[in-house]
Structures are given as C-alpha cells and as structure tokens.
Specification:
Strand order of the largest sheet: 2-1-3-10-4
Largest sheet: 5 strands, mixed
Number of helices: 11
Helix content: 25-40%
Order of helices and strands: EHEHHHEEEEHEHEHEEHHEEEHH
Number of strands: 13
Structural class: alpha/beta
Length: 303
C-alpha cells in the first residue's frame, strides 16, 4: 500500500527499535496498516564520529541536526529520539509532539556486580560526563577511558579488556532484548541523566495533521516528567560537558524532582529536590543548585 506516514530515525539498532515502537503505537492508536508507515534511517554525525567525546565535536546536535533537516525539508513526517540526547533548546519550527511510556531509568553496571567490587584503580569505559563524575565521587581511585558507539561496540570493547567495567542505560538494554545483562545501579547511588529512558517524537510545529496523530500516542506522565527535567537543564544552562543528573517522578498531582550537579572529578557536588507544580518550580531548583555551588562548579553551568 502507499506510504502515508514517514518516521525518521538514526540507523543504530537501538534507534530503529525505538522507531518500530513508535510505529506499533501509531498502528494500535489509529488502526493504520503497518506497511503504510515507513521508517527512514538517517545517518547522523554522532553515528559517524566515534573516536571523540561529543563535547569536543559539536555536542548533542550531532544526534539531531540531520533529522531536523529531514523534517524541515519534508523528507519525513516525524523524528524519533532518545530524549536524553535532545538539546535543551530546540528550533522553533520543531515541536516535541509525543513521548512513549518511560522505561527503566537506571544505569546498569557491566563487568562487575557492584561498584564496591571494582578493584583499586579500575578502568571504567564511558563517554558520559555525568557517569564519570558520579563514579569518581563514589570511587576516587578509578580511571575513566572513553567508550563511544552503540551497545555492541561498547560490549565488544569491554570483552576485549579495554576496561574493567562500563555503564549502559537499562532502558536501551531492555529494548534490545537484553534485560538480564548487567547489574542495575540504584538511583539513590547514581541519579540518571535527565530524560533517561524516555523516547520522544518530534514533528514540525506547523504540521497539524502529524501533531494530532502523534498526540494519540503521547504518555502524559512521562511527558510531564521529562519537561520538568528539561526545564531544570535550561535553568542550569547545561550542555553535554556539564555533569548533571535529574529524575522527576509523579507524586499525587505534582512531580517530585531530584537533581544534582557535580564537578568532573566528583569532588564538588550539590544536590536538591523540589515538588514541581509548574515548570517554574523546576527552574527554581536549578537556580538554587547554582546559588549554592562554588564559583568553579557554577562555571560549568549557567553560573
């Protein structure tokens, strides 16, 4: 049958899995034929550049700019993203139209069962400033080596002995059919990245038909929580170099938002939480963290 809706996605196995999740949700919500929804893989700069940290080569825009161009040029009707990879400030022409129900927000530790089990001076593979700072705060003796690439690439490097352990998002492992891989790390030990575990769908702000179609698959509680975490990021003026963690959870008719900011070596740390009834409360929490931070720590953010 003719293609009636086009979903843009990065070409990694995880990204394509998430695009198929969006397609399945649209089929269920609207009764559309699956073969009328095309998944359009788009190669992003972030997929091509694997040997340097994102902060050194353009930040989170490396995951989004090619998909943004495809949206604006009319090549796709929507774009699917891991929301933790989406820049805080987005083009006005593009809207976050929907989010799927959030998955497990935790990190999983691979290589050892617990952080305490790491040998003295252990090498941890990660490209995340947040994970690096949290690990160094918990275990100042460890060393960090850069791990980039998809899940299989990182697992291969771990198996080759390039590191003693690594951390991956539980949600990604679960979506790839590996729910038993690695040991979950409690959020009380390592608060996750803002928007971790959330899949978002963007479309053009002016595309009313796509906005209406995607609204039917939006999970309201996930959307509210992720927007609160992103409002905190905006208040911090955080970028991909900024070690920041946040988690919002529904609490009655409000949202409980926990957050922390750290120095890269983990020695400086500010944490706080707030009951969020509107996004101004999330903004206020971010500003409070900066107000309590040292000038050195604040300089990594908006201070």
């Amino acid at each position: 049958m003719p293609i009636s809706f086009r979903i843009g996605s990065r070409g990694s196995p995880l990204a394509l899995t998430q695009a198929r999740m969006v397609r399945a949700a649209l089929v269920e919500a609207h009764g559309w034929a699956e073969d009328g929804i095309e998944i359009v893989p788009i190669k992003t700069s972030g997929d091509r550049i694997q040997d340097r940290a994102l902060a050194d080569v353009g930040g989170k825009a490396l995951w989004t700019k090619e998909l943004d161009r495809a949206l604006i040029d009319g090549e796709i009707d929507c774009a699917v993203h891991s929301m933790k990879d989406v820049e805080t400030v987005r083009p006005g022409a593009i809207a976050i139209a929907a989010m799927l129900p959030r998955a497990d927000v935790r990190d999983r530790l691979l290589g050892v069962d617990t952080l305490d089990a790491l040998k003295p001076g252990a090498v941890i593979g990660t490209s995340s400033p947040r994970r690096s700072a949290q690990l160094r705060r918990l275990r100042p003796d460890i060393r960090i080596t850069l791990f980039r690439g998809n899940v299989d690439t990182r697992l291969s490097r771990l198996n080759l002995g390039e590191a003693d352990a690594t951390l991956l998002a539980a949600a990604g492992l679960d979506r790839l059919g590996r729910p038993g891989l690695g040991a979950p790390v409690a959020v009380e030990t390592m608060l996750p990245a803002p928007a971790q575990g959330a899949v978002g769908v963007e479309t053009l702000s002016a595309n009313q038909a796509a906005l209406a179609a995607l609204a039917a698959i939006d999970h309201g509680d996930t959307h509210r929580c992720v927007l609160a975490e992103r409002a905190l990021l905006a208040a911090l003026a955080a970028d991909c170099r900024s070690p920041v963690a946040a988690l919002a959870t529904i609490e009655g008719d409000a949202i409980r938002l926990r957050a922390e900011i750290l120095s890269p070596d983990g020695r400086e740390h500010q944490a706080g939480e707030a009951l969020v009834r509107d996004l101004a409360d999330a903004t206020a929490l971010g500003r409070a963290l900066l107000a309590r931070a040292s000038p050195t720590l604040a300089a990594l953010f908006g201070g």
